[in-house]
Amino acid sequence: MNNLISYFLEANLYLVCFYFLYQILLAGDKYFMFNRTFLVGGIGMSIFLPLLTININQPTESAGAVEGFLMLPAVTITEIRTESVGFILQWWQVAGLLYLAGMTFYLFRLLWQIVHIMRYLPLFNSSKEKKGGYVLITTDGQIPTCSFFNYLFWDKSTGLNSEEEKQVFEHELAHIRQWHTIDVLLVELVRVVFWFNPVAHLLKSRITEVHEYLADQQATKQISVDVYSR
Fold it and tell me: Most buried among 67, 143, 205, 211, using CB within 10 Å?
């Protein structure tokens, strides 16, 4: 139990440190690929670094501690320890239940979002075209234009003109080619486990922001900046 608590405290502290380092040093920079690497790497290090510092060996009582315990009145020590342990266990049970309730909520929400998207994958949808490196799936307004791994969901009901369609299309292709879905799933899992930490939710906004900049940057290579910015 102590190891688990130590892990959670250290992991959340690392998340906070990496987030504020990003905000102070990189948030205003336009090196978006480096920003993405820093954010994703910071999350990964926050998860794994605490594992290196956890002492898996349970501490043993020293002879002096045992001797001191034996010298105290038996009745008094037993009564105090029973009441203290009972009180601590009650509060940890409440905290544990609250944590599990929050984690269940965020996990259920994430699974629902994935299932909602998977309903429109080729297994369930025949309106698809295999292209070079991606699969185009038309949704006709049932799901907005978006991407999920190498699947591009295209909503034909938006009424965009040809130029606007090309802009949006290239933007979504950039998300696919740069595998942004993996980053999103990583940060969503972090939100599930560390839902009580506000930084876990702020990181989602920062990564999404960097993804959009990267997608715009890639799209402007295919379309002139003047046309893309209209």
Answer: 211
